[in-house]
Specification:
Elements: H1 11-23, H2 28-37, H3 44-65, E1 72-82, E2 85-94, E3 99-105, H4 110-124, E4 130-132, H5 138-146, E5 151-153, H6 160-176, H7 182-199, H8 208-226
Parallel strand pairs: 1-4, 4-5
Antiparallel strand pairs: 1-2, 2-3
Helix pairs in contact: 1-3, 2-3, 3-7, 3-8, 4-5
Length: 227
């Protein structure tokens, strides 16, 4: 099946626009201008529709090819405003900084924590050795009922790793100005996490040549996902 059937623009342009949106803190209007500078005239509405449709397709392909996560998950939740109402974005990252999952819920009680833990186990499997959370009382409830054999660490500052991971999402949330629905928000954070995992290579920890080699590999993986 041709993924790009009945689309007027070539796949290279579509995939490039989608990559720009999920890789950088750019609006659809910003991407419209970047493409216009290269002689490509496309409306921001078309770019928005590309990001919705192809972002989901690329995300599924990237997840299928993912090599797996570590055995320690750092878990945290932050509030986000959706259509003027407060919701909570639950996020788990592993010890290597890979985003394991992101999930929006209306609450952050014990039931919400259990749903997120079950989602982690169902979607990502593997042997989970340890979870690291803050002292929110919902976490011990979910730990006790869903994964009691797993080590649970709640030391102060222990889950700073996932707190730092929220910064990229916060930046995009400000750029989007207003999120109208949970569905829209969930679609975005899922695709954003998949692209972040692929291209977040820890530049500050690597020698230049090693970083460039990893970047070439990441672009190769991206090319296969959008083909």
């Amino acid at each position: 099946m041709n993924t790009y059937k009945r689309h007027r623009f070539p796949p290279d342009i579509i995939s490039y626009a989608v990559w720009l949106y999920y890789r950088f803190n750019l609006s659809h209007r910003d991407i419209e201008d970047l493409l216009a500078e290269r002689g490509i005239t496309v409306s921001r509405e078309a770019i928005r529709l590309w990001c919705i449709k192809f972002g989901a397709i690329y995300t599924r392909r990237l997840k299928r090819k993912h090599q797996g996560y570590g055995d320690t998950y750092f878990i945290d939740e932050v509030f986000v405003k959706i259509n003027g109402k407060q919701h909570y974005l639950w996020k788990a990252v592993d010890q290597d900084g890979e985003v394991v999952d992101v999930y929006l819920q209306a609450r952050r009680d014990g039931a919400a924590a259990k749903r997120f833990f079950k989602r982690l186990l169902r979607n990502h499997g593997g042997e989970l050795r340890q979870i690291v959370t803050d002292k929110l009382r919902s976490y011990p409830v979910a730990h006790r009922e869903v994964i009691p054999e797993t080590i649970h660490v709640t030391d102060r500052y222990a889950n700073n790793r996932v707190g730092q991971s929220h910064e990229a999402t916060r930046m995009r949330e400000r750029g989007m100005r207003k999120i109208k629905s949970i569905r829209q928000a969930q679609r975005f954070v899922t695709a954003h996490a998949a692209v972040q995992n692929l291209f977040n290579l820890g530049r500050h920890l690597l020698r230049a040549q090693h970083y460039r080699d990893l970047r070439v590999s990441a672009f190769g993986e991206w090319s296969r996902a959008v083909a």
